[in-house]
């Protein structure tokens, strides 16, 4: 389909007919994420009375970000009379729910967005709770617990790492705990404690 023809169809939907249907089908196949082409293709299917309309509508409706706009394009001709009947005197057809989505939620969401956008720009202020001191105390307790060593986690490897890092006080403490934890190796740990004390004094 030529670009100029496509623009003309967008401006005037009356140009949609049986001849434009295969061209729009080819355009949507070649460009599956081209939403304007899908909407025009749906409009063309509806206008031609094609049985593919419902199946294609179910496929395309989730891809269109503004379902109200899709509804306006597809059902604009049925809203000729304000009495709820179209120009043929037949009762107006309600669109399926999957076209409109949940309009109540969308309108309340739009109001919230409009309110936010109309507010004056500025820095965000975060209010601190009244019981801030209590929170700080809890945070400090959590930090102390995380830093404190659990006796079960102390191993000879950890003690040796402390020794290599020249953290002699921690190494001494670790070796003492290990000698209490493993009394059968107390002589070995006693010699390690002596070595650590000598290194600390140097």
Automatic annotation (TrEMBL):
Keywords: TPR repeat. Gene3D superfamilies: Tetratricopeptide repeat domain. This is Tetratricopeptide repeat protein. TPR repeats lie at residues 152-185.
